[in-house]
Structures are given as C-alpha cells and as structure tokens.
Design brief:
Number of helices: 5
Helix content: under 10%
Distance between the termini: 55 Å
Strand content: over 45%
C-alpha cells in the first residue's frame, strides 16, 4: 500500500509537471532573451537515438528511453552488457550462472526467469539493429560503443519478436571519414586487467574501415579453500571489424564481422545450507539459523564463514565461442529509403558447473548449447506531407541444440559394486546414483510484417499509429537417457531387499523421446499522441501491446516417461497491454533535462518459471499463469547547475502482482514477480576542476540502490535479497583536448555483501546463491587520436 501511494504520487507528479512546465519554459525564454555569454550558456547536449528506426533527438521520441553515450558507459565502469542495470531505473539483469552465461533480463517487471537456453526472454537484445536470438549470446563485453538505448514498454510494432517488456539496443562506433585511434588499459583488484583498442578511417573517398577489440583477465574474487585457488575470474576477448562503402550516390553499405570467446574456470556458487546439524542434517533448520549460515546440506557440508570463501571439488571450464556477420544496405530515393539488414550469428557454450557448491559430488551439471541464427529485415521508410512512416518485413530462422548432463550423487558411486549406477536407490537407502543426458533440438521460424506512421495533426500535436502481424513456428525434438555400464537391480532369487548388478548393453537406457510442434500468431498495435506543451517540453500518451511466443521446456524433465510427456507439451504465448503517459522537457536554458513516465500493464497468460525439486535432478518448467498487473513510474533528471558540473539522477517505482495462479503445489496469487524491486535508484555527479590551460581534474562519485526483491515466483523468503546501496567513484586527470586520461576508480566502496540470484535446491539441502562482486579498486589510462 505504501508503494501504491508512491505510484499515485508519481503519476500525479508527471501530470503536475506537464501543467507547470510551460511556465518554466516561458521563464527559460525570458532568460534567453536577456542574453548570456557563450561561455556560461553551455547547456546539456542532445543525444541522438534510433529508437523508432530513424535518427531523432532523444527528447523528441514519445517513448520511455534511457540512453547513454559510449564515453559515459566507459566512465561508469560498465564493461558487460549485464552491467547496465545498475544505472537504468526499473531494469534488472540477473545472472543465475555468473558472468559469461545467459542473463535474465527484466524491464518494468517483465521478464523470464527460465535458465534454459532454448527460451528467449520477453525483452529483445539488439546490436546494431540485429536481434540476438540465443539467450546464451546475450551477455557480452561492451567496447567501442557509440551509445546504449534501453526502450521501456512493449515494442511490438517496430521490434516485434520477444519485445513484450522492451528492448536494449547496443550501437557500436562506426567507420568515420577521419582517421581515428583510441586505446585503454586498466588494472584492478584480483589482478584484473582489461584492454581495449580501436582504429579506423578512410581507405578511399568511397570506403572506410574500423577495427576494434577488447580482452579481460581476472583471477577472481572467490577463494577456494579446498584448492587454494581464486574462482569467479574472467577470461575473454572480442573483436569486431566494419567496412563502410559508398557504392553510389544513393546506395551505401555497412559490413560487419565479429567474434569472441570466454574461457575461464566456471563461476562458483555459495551453498546456503537448510538442514539442522543438531539432528544429523535430517530436519530443516529455522529460517534465522539458515540465514546465519549455521546449517548444512544433505552431506552435512556447512559453508565457510567468509562470504567469498568456499570448498569446491570441481573446477572445470566455462567456454563460450561466438562469431557472426551482418550486412546493411541503404538505397535512398529522395525522401524514401529502402534498408536491408541481413545477419548470421553462431554461438557455442559448454558450462561445466559444481552445482552443489561443496567438496562433495552431490550434483554436477553440464550445460551445452549450440545455436545458429539467420535474420533478415527489409524496410521502407520516408517522410513527406507531415508524415514520418516505415513499413517492412522480418524473418528469423534459428537452430538450437542442447546437450545437458546430470551426475547425481557421484560421491556414493564409489561404494557401489563396480561403480554401478543405482537410479532407484536400492542399495543406498533411497539415494539415486545416476548419470543422465538430455539431447534437445529446437527449430524456430518467425516472420512478420509491420508498419508505423507519425502524423502531424497540428504544428504542436502528432499522432502515432502502428501495427505488426507475427507468425512463429517451432519444432522441438527431445531425447533423454541414462548412461550407465551397469545398474543395481532387485535380485529376485536372493529374497526381499536383495540386489544385484546388471550390465547394460551399449551403456544406454532410453527414457523418453518426443517430437513436438507448435505455431503462434499475433497482431500487435500501438496508438499514441504527443503534444508540445511549450518549446522543449513534450507530453505523450500511448496504448501499446506486446507478444511473446510460446515454446517448450528445454530443461531436465521427469525420468518417468508418462510425466515427461505431459511436461514436454508446449506452453502458450503471453500478451501485454500497456497504458503510459509521460513528459520530456529541457528547461532553464538547457541546464535541466527532466523526463518522467507513469504506466499500467495488463499482463495476460504470462509465462511463469518454476523449479520443482523431485529428489533427483530438479525439473525447471514453464507454465502460463493466469494474469498479472504492473504499475510504475520513472523519473530521470540531468542537471547542469554550472559549467563543468552536472548531476544525473534516475528513480524507478514498481508494483507487480500475480493474479489467480494456482498450481498443484502452490498458490502464487498475490505474489510479486521475480527480479522486480519496488524502488530502483542511481545517481552520478561529474565535476571538473581546471588545473591549467591543458589539464583538468575530474571527480565522479556514483551511487545505486535496489530495494528488496525475490528470485522466485513463490516469493520464498530464502530466495530474497534485501535492499542495498552500492557506492562507487572515479577521479581522472585529463587533457583538456580529450587526447588522454589517467584515472583511479573504486566500486562497491562500502564492501556490501549481496547476491544477484538464488535457486532453491532444497531436495539436496541447500540454496544455491550467486554472489555480487566485492569492493574493487583500479587504475586506468586512455588515449585517443
């Protein structure tokens, strides 16, 4: 109820500001008429975005967009695509398997907590307008960027597939007509070294190039007490080459080739025990004792007192390889442009994890996935007669293969005759000992046609109308088997309870095999109005819809073929209708930029992820909940009270609630959605002190806050992170001409201990947690020509 009051206040604030803004704009005009010198009239610069598939000033776009330049991203220390959540209101990115693995992206409470690699979330990730189809490829290093745009709310018209909640656009720096070169090198805590470089310029009057790359190595911030080694480090590199061609006066092309690799020891989790040591780890602990780390898992393991310490018996590799290419062609015919974007991306990942996060072989899972995606977009855009319009078509074909293994209670196997498997626990007192493999193949074809027009009704009033037809077809082939040379079986001749070892010819016991297909259709639309209340002050309102197709469960299914057949059935699509009002303003002689938005979402058939503990390998399943409602508001402000001094503040408010969703094991009605804190805040300040005509000292303190959030739909209090602040800062000595810069920086200065994801593995007696990074210091040097 307190949050609802805040949201009502937020909505009222948006409307009140829309009423008061004209008077502020009038005062601004008066100040401008009074005249100021060029030196003291240096205001906030414009940010050009392509959120509506054409270049526009951010303040002219009637959509809630948070945008950062490439330089701002670098100054904030953002190095990965998952890091941007720290500075964007109402954006959360969970990393259930650590850096280098697929993210769980939530925008305004809309997301998907499914960790299976065959199900993309409802928020699109784009690099240079190319959709990144594979979830395993959506975490990557950021380097040589022009800007980042985060679009909030359904983008079903122009972005289409899987953009129910919004879209994140990463726009790389492009080849230029002037020679450019830049490089940076940083060194920080845990022997973290990051290097980045880019070079480009003209080849001829009609051709330009740009080559850039980055690499990172870190020993890691988790201490493995069992081996003495550091864990949760980094080891990656990425390269990109671009060639821009002016083929004719009205015909140009941009060719892109890119690739990269992550090769590092798999990230390690923290085991939070659930079982009481006073009862021999056979009964649950009290919640307070669990949170105090006084309890253990089914083998009696209690994690060390040090938050960043652990005992890990498995230190295999996480290896992710990717490469891709794209070609963009533009034909200009006066006020009309025909654009073609073709792209191909390949991604291969093998993640061998110590799932139980302990010195015992309780549960070890390998996640292998390989995907190939081809996309083609063709669009025609133009302007004339007071109308900006775009029409087009889109096609995607993706082939994704999963190879996942589970090694269950391997610690017990050595005590069994000949190392045999014991799936039914006949010789172990009910403990299942087995090695399983799941092989899935998913083929996806998606096609759509779309159009949107912005119509000038009066010089100050514009209407936007758009629509998109989506068609998607999926085929899912699934196979599971046990891989054992021999297993324990009942010995019928030995009497009751007697067992014997039976050899398995070929070493394979088939469990199930399915070949399922499903198609989905949807029409999405957007209707909106935006009005110039005063110069540099715009208000807007819109109704829009979004659609995410259904699909198939790509995780481990039941070993019972009948149960697996039910779990293998497809889940349905989800839809969202969004109602939004907002205002964008630039005031006081461009010294203040204030944007605000309030929204209400009607969420239908949302796809809700649940992890089911079975006593064997946990089942991760998706199902369609009945409904959910989401309310919220956002406020973004940039102020420049003086030259060389600016402040950026972002605030997000959010209320989410699941409606009427009851399963066989739980009632989720009234629960909050996962990864949806009610309050998010970030703030930075930049202040430069001139030291001479050629040198300046720049100070940049920063802070961010996340209120409490759950990591599961059942709102388990053990899968919850309380609210926390993160403080950081940067001090740089820089050349006034921007040619070089030397800086020191710090992150998480107060040494806050927090988790950014948790998973319930209570059948094994523990909660699996992934820890946020500890305090870190570093130095950095940049040069630019």
């Amino acid at each position: 109820m307190k949050l609802m009051g805040k949201l009502r206040l937020g909505t009222a604030s948006v409307l009140a500001f829309a009423i008061l803004a004209p008077s502020a704009a009038t005062a601004q005009e008066g100040a401008a008429d009074a005249g100021t010198s060029a030196e003291t009239n240096e205001g906030i610069g414009d940010i050009v975005v392509t959120a509506q598939r054409r270049e526009q000033n951010l303040q002219d776009v009637p959509v809630a967009v948070t945008a950062f330049s490439g330089d701002a991203i670098a100054d904030l220390g953002i190095q990965s695509s998952s890091d941007i959540a720290a500075v964007v209101p109402n954006l959360e990115i969970g990393l259930p398997a650590g850096e280098g693995n697929q993210p769980l992206i939530y925008i305004r409470g809309v997301g998907l907590a499914d960790t299976n690699s065959n199900n993309a979330g409802p928020n699109g990730v784009y690099v240079d307008e190319v959709y990144i189809a594979s979830p395993g490829a959506q975490t990557f290093q950021l380097f040589d960027l022009e800007r980042v745009e985060v679009l909030k709310g359904p983008q079903g018209t122009l972005y289409g597939r899987n953009a129910t909640g919004g879209a994140i656009n990463f726009i790389t720096a492009k080849p230029s007509k002037d020679f450019q070169a830049q490089a940076s090198l940083s060194y920080g805590s845990f022997d973290t070294i990051t290097g980045e470089a880019a070079i480009g310029g003209p080849i001829s009057d009609a051709a330009r190039f740009r080559i850039s790359g980055t690499g990172t190595h870190s020993n890691g911030y988790v201490h493995n007490l069992l081996t003495g080694r550091r864990e949760n480090g980094q080891g990656s590199f990425a390269l990109r080459g671009q060639l821009a061609l002016d083929i004719a006066d009205n015909f140009d092309a941009l060719l892109n080739v890119h690739g990269g690799k992550v090769d590092v020891r798999s990230p390690q989790y923290r085991s939070l025990g659930l079982l009481d040591p006073d009862t021999g780890f056979t009964t649950p602990c009290a919640p307070d004792a669990i949170m105090a780390n006084q309890c253990g898992n089914v083998f009696g393991y209690v994690s060390p007192e040090g938050f960043y310490d652990g005992n890990y018996d498995r230190s295999d590799r996480l290896v992710v390889k990717n490469w891709g290419t794209s070609a963009r062609f533009n034909w200009h015919f006066g006020d009309i442009t025909l654009t073609s974007i073709s792209a191909y991306d390949w991604n291969d990942k093998l993640h061998r994890e110590d799932t139980d996060a302990s010195p015992f072989r309780i549960l070890d899972i390998d996640y292998g996935v390989r995907s190939k995606a081809f996309t083609q977009e063709l669009r025609l855009s133009g302007t004339g007669g007071g109308v900006n319009w775009v029409v087009g078509g889109y096609y995607l074909h993706e082939t994704l293969n999963q190879n996942q293994t589970g090694d269950l209670f391997g610690e017990v196997r050595a005590a069994l005759p000949g190392g045999a498997g014991d799936p039914d626990g006949l010789a172990t007192g009910g403990i299942p000992v087995l090695f399983s493999r799941t092989l899935n193949r998913q083929n996806t074809d998606a096609a759509s046609i779309f159009g949107q027009a912005e119509i000038e009704l009066t010089p100050a009033l514009r209407a936007t109308i758009g629509g998109r037809y989506n068609y998607e077809r999926k085929r899912f082939l699934a196979e599971a088997r046990l891989e054992e040379n021999s297993i324990i079986v009942p010995d019928e001749e030995g009497g009751e309870g007697a067992v014997t070892v039976a050899p398995i010819p070929g070493g394979i016991i088939p469990l199930y095999s399915f070949d399922n297909r499903k198609s989905f259709k949807n029409v999405s639309f957007k209707i909106g109005l935006d009005y110039d209340i005063a110069p540099d002050v715009m208000a807007y309102a819109s109704i829009s819809t979004g659609f995410k197709s259904g699909g198939f469960n790509g995780g481990f299914l039941s070993f019972d073929p009948a149960e697996a057949a039910v779990q293998a059935q497809p889940f349905n699509e989800e839809t969202l209708t969004a109602y939004e009002v907002g205002i964008k303003s630039t005031l006081f002689d461009r010294r203040l930029r204030f944007n605000a938005a309030a929204f209400y979402y009607d969420y239908k058939d949302l796809q809700l992820y649940t992890l089911i503990n079975t006593g064997a390998i946990p089942l991760s399943l998706l199902d369609n909940a009945a409904n959910a409602t989401i309310y919220g508001a956002e406020f973004e402000m940039i102020a420049k009270p003086a030259d060389r001094f600016d402040i950026t503040l972002n605030l997000g408010l959010l209320d989410t609630e699941v409606k009427d969703f009851v399963t066989a094991v739980a009632d989720y009605s009234g629960n909050r959605l996962a990864l949806s804190p009610t309050v998010t805040f970030s703030g930075t300040a930049n202040y430069e002190v001139p030291l001479s005509d050629k040198l300046a000292l720049a100070f940049q303190p920063s802070a961010s806050y996340r209120s409490s959030q759950f990591f599961s739909a059942d709102n388990n209090p053990l899968l919850k992170q309380k609210g926390y602040w993160l403080l950081g800062g940067r001090i740089a000595l820089k050349d006034e001409d921007g040619r070089w810069e030397a800086a020191v920086f710090g992150r998480n200065l107060t040494r806050k201990k927090y988790i950014n994801y948790a998973v319930d593995l209570s059948d094994f007696g523990f909660i699996e947690q992934f820890r946020g990074e500890p305090r870190m210091f570093g130095v950095e040097f940049r040069v630019k020509y």
